[in-house]
């Protein structure tokens, strides 16, 4: 006879002890933004050089606005990286992100279909990596954690793979009884 057990002790996601991202995660994010701002400023300089009318009308705004924009985005990155964290628990992995709108994503390890470790050129230089976890039925990653060390990514991948192997071995053991 089937009996549906009541679960009374569900852990609260607010009680999760999150680990911070790698020390160089902030540097990685700042370098990525600089890779955007340098060409952006170069285009603005070129536009001002070739269009003197535009330059004379917007010089004050550009000289004040662009540095303020860069400073605000760099400060936002500092706060954002400080608030991010991840937790690898017995049956799931959690990731928290967001400054204004905070989001906690919890992915059960039993649902993970495959994983990818990604390293761009800046990440490789800083010995960082991004981990993407995919579950059934989705085309895009259900959980992506950037700013981990490459070693952390490999350890998490190994943990998830061993969890899946234990999960698939359990029904075989039950079938033998």
From TrEMBL:
Residues 85-145 form the YdbS-like PH domain. It holds the Pfam family bPH_2. The keyword Transmembrane helix applies. Keywords: Membrane, Transmembrane, Transmembrane helix. Coiled coil: none annotated. The chain crosses the membrane at residues 34-54, 60-79. InterPro entries: YdbS-like_PH (IPR005182). The keyword Membrane applies. PANTHER family: UPF0699 TRANSMEMBRANE PROTEIN YDBS, UPF0699 TRANSMEMBRANE PROTEIN YDBT. This is YdbS-like PH domain-containing protein.
